[in-house]
C-alpha cells in the first residue's frame, strides 16, 4: 500500500473510532509499527490527531471528507474484525457484477470498502449501505422499498417474490448472529430470515460474511446448516474446527487479504 493511500485509510479509521492503537493500525494495514508511528507523527504535525503512548486520538472538530457523519456515528461503532471482512469481500466482487448487500453493520463495512471501486452494481435494503455509497458516481445503487425496520435500519417489501421477479444477482452477501456446528447459521430477526431465503434464490453465489465473535454461538432461528453458503468470509481467529469443516466440505473460507482459503 502506497503512503498516500495508507494516510487516507488511517484518517478514515480514526474518523470511525476516534482512537486506535499503533498495533491495531499496523495489523489492519499490513505494515510495521515503525511505519505507522511515522505516519501518525506526520498527521500530528498536520493537526489531524494527537499521539499518545502506543496510539493516537483524532482531534476535533474534523470536517474533511464527511460521509453523513451524524447518521454513521450514531449507529456504527468501529469494529476491526468487520472492517477486515469488508476489505476481503470487496476483493471478491468483480467489475460489472450485480451484488446484494443485506442488513447489518458487516455489510456496511463491505460497502465502505467498495467505495474505492468502480463499475459495481449494488442492490440493497440496508440504509447504512445506501448512505455510504450514495455519493460514488461509478457505483450504481438500487434501493429496495418496503416497510422500514427501525431497529435494524433496513426495509422489507411486503412481497419478496414479487419485488425480485426478473432480477438475477451474481453474489449476495449476508451476515448472521450465530454460527454453530450443530445449529448451523442462526438469526435473531425473522424478517432477515425471509430476506435471505428470497434473495438466495436469485443469486448465483451466496456468501456468508461473519466475524469471529459469532462462532460457537446460536440464536433464535436457524436458516441452514454450515454448507448453506457457497463461500465464507471471516477472521483468521475462528476456532480450527470450523476451518476444518469448511475445508472438508469444499467451502472456500477467506480470512486474509490475499484471498487464499484457509488450509491446515
Q: What does this protein structure show overall?
A:
With 264 residues, the chain is of the alpha/beta class. Helix content is 37%, strand content 23%. Strands 6-5-4-9-12-14-15 form a seven-stranded parallel sheet, with helices on both faces. The protein has a three-stranded antiparallel sheet with strand order 1-3-2. About 3% of the residues have low confidence.
Defining key terms:
single chain; seven-stranded parallel β-sheet; three-stranded antiparallel β-sheet; 15 strands; 37% helix
The pLDDT mean sits at 89
- The geometry reads as globular
Taken as a percent bin, the fraction of beta residues is 15-25%
DSSP strand count: 15
Number of helices: 10
- Calculate Rg over CA atoms: 19 Å
State the assembly state of the protein chains: single chain
Secondary structural class? alpha/beta
Helix content: 25-40%
The run of helices and strands is HEHHEEHHEHEHEEEHEEEHEEEHE
- Main β-sheet, spatial strand arrangement: 6-5-4-9-12-14-15
Largest sheet: 7 strands, parallel
Instruction: State the low-pLDDT regions, or none.
Output: 62-70
Give the CA-CA distance, first to last residue. Answer: 28 Å
Short précis:
With 264 residues, the protein is of the alpha/beta class. It has ten helices and 15 strands.
Blueprint (SSEs and pairs):
Blueprint: H1 3-17, E1 19-21, H2 22-29, H3 33-46, E2 49-52, E3 55-58, H4 69-75, H5 80-92, E4 98-101, H6 105-114, E5 120-124, H7 127-133, E6 139-143, E7 147-149, E8 154-156, H8 160-163, E9 169-174, E10 178-180, E11 184-187, H9 190-200, E12 203-209, E13 221-224, E14 231-233, H10 240-248, E15 253-254
Parallel strand pairs: 4-5, 4-9, 5-6, 9-12, 12-14, 14-15
Antiparallel strand pairs: 1-3, 2-3, 7-8, 10-11, 11-13
Helix pairs in contact: 2-3, 5-6, 6-7
